[in-house]
Amino acid sequence: LLEPGVDYEYLQSDVVVTGFELLVPVPAGALKTLAVRYTRPDDVVIGGSYSSYGITAAADTLMLEMIKAPDPRPSGPYATTWRLAMRNVYNLGVQNIPAGSFTLMILDNISPPFARPGSSALTYNLIFGIDSSGSWDGHVDAKWLDLVGGRLWFPDRHAFAPDPANVATWTGGEFEFTGPYQAQYDQALRIYNDYLNPTDENDVHQYTIMFTRTIPAD
Q1: Could you tell me the pTM of the whole model?
Q2: How confident is the model at residue 215 (pLDDT cuts 50, 70, 90)?
Q3: Which of 105, 113, 182, 200 could disulfide-link 196, Cβ–Cβ 3.0 to 4.6 Å?
Q4: Cα-based distances in Å from 144 to 16, 155, 159
Q5: How far is CA 89 from CA 96, 160, 196, in A?
């Protein structure tokens, strides 16, 4: 049994838990399963004891929802757990970040890296939905940042290969992934659909989160 605040932290949107983060990640080679029981916002209980489902069993026997198989893969008998991993949350590497003390840009990996596709006036911050200001001003919308925990959230669960309909909404219909940008999109989409080895991971790495802090002078 894992303990909140000791083994894991909740990831929340307002008061609704949308996921959790293990404080010590499960090593890739460890054949461990994660499973949960919880109550949905509509008060439906997921998981419980065998007796709560009318099944005769020992008193301490539980029925839980598996959220990570021992060897999670996008296909196979436990493929449903692959889609439960939150791949739209990134750790910025620092916590308790003062507001206004940083800049954050999404850069593409076309050499040299750019914060905008070609000559477009639209930034990747806008294209990926984390800046709704309509122009690059160095700011990410506060709702996508957890400054205490040092996390950046993306509004689409496929952070770097978002739904084209979402991109059209965020950019006012002024951008779509075509040409070399479509090729980048297709590679990035593999993050969410494919089981990647280290070489594959290098191939699909199409964008970089550039987070820069401003340290006040003494």
Answers
A1: 0.86
A2: confident
A3: 200
A4: 15, 8, 12
A5: 17, 11, 18
